[in-house]
Design goal:
Blueprint: E1 3-9, E2 12-18, H1 24-31, E3 50-53, E4 56-59, E5 72-74, H2 88-95, H3 105-118, H4 124-130, H5 141-164
Parallel strand pairs: 1-5
Antiparallel strand pairs: 1-2, 3-4, 3-5
Bound molecules: FE2/S2 (inorganic) cluster (2 copies).
């Protein structure tokens, strides 16, 4: 039997009926038509389904939908500004060839965002650890790490410019 849940999704309140056995990924893709998070393995191994819940990167294919009641969820669809300006991570993945087939990309970016939101100046090791649960079958890891590094740099520069105003 369906149950109603309420949570914040990409800064908007969502009230929706769900089947208690659904995963968060199922709700996002099949009901809310947010298809940025991908289903790769469906068992928590590949990271293609990564979204951010309460500030942490999670595998939405394993996340029980009933557990998002009252929580804050961010998906790749929530990253660009309303005027279409891409998030620095999205821009950097384009500019630094961090995208090949693109299947892993939204998961990679969400894992990286969860890192940069907590640590604006990560080391390469910290970057690699943050995406250690994300598999790229195109094996573009060097460009992906570069993309995250450049995004961190450009976000720091923007912050410094804003502070200098
Ligand atoms: S689809 Fe969720 S970890 Fe692979
Ligand atoms: S770009 Fe193809 S799986 Fe990563």
């Amino acid at each position: 039997m369906k149950k109603e849940i309420e949570f914040m999704l990409n800064e908007e309140k969502v009230i929706v009926e769900v089947e208690p056995h659904w995963t968060l990924l199922h709700l996002l893709r099949e009901t809310l038509e947010l298809t940025g998070a991908k289903e790769g393995c469906g068992v928590g191994e590949c990271g293609a389904c990564t979204v951010i819940v309460e500030g942490d990167a999670v595998n939405s294919c394993l996340y029980p939908v009933m557990e998002i009641e009252g929580k804050t969820v961010t998906t790749i669809e929530g990253l660009a500004k309303p005027d279409g300006t891409l998030h620095p991570l999205q821009q950097s993945f384009i500019e630094n060839n961090g995208v090949q087939c693109g299947y892993c990309t939204s998961g990679m970016i969400m894992s990286a965002k969860a890192l940069l939101d907590k640590n604006a100046d990560p080391t390469e090791n910290e970057i690699r650890t943050s995406i250690s649960g994300n598999i790229c079958r195109c094996t573009g890891y060097v460009q992906i790490v570069e993309s995250i590094k450049h995004a961190a740099g450009s976000m720091k520069n923007t912050q410094a410019a804003q502070n200098g105003k």
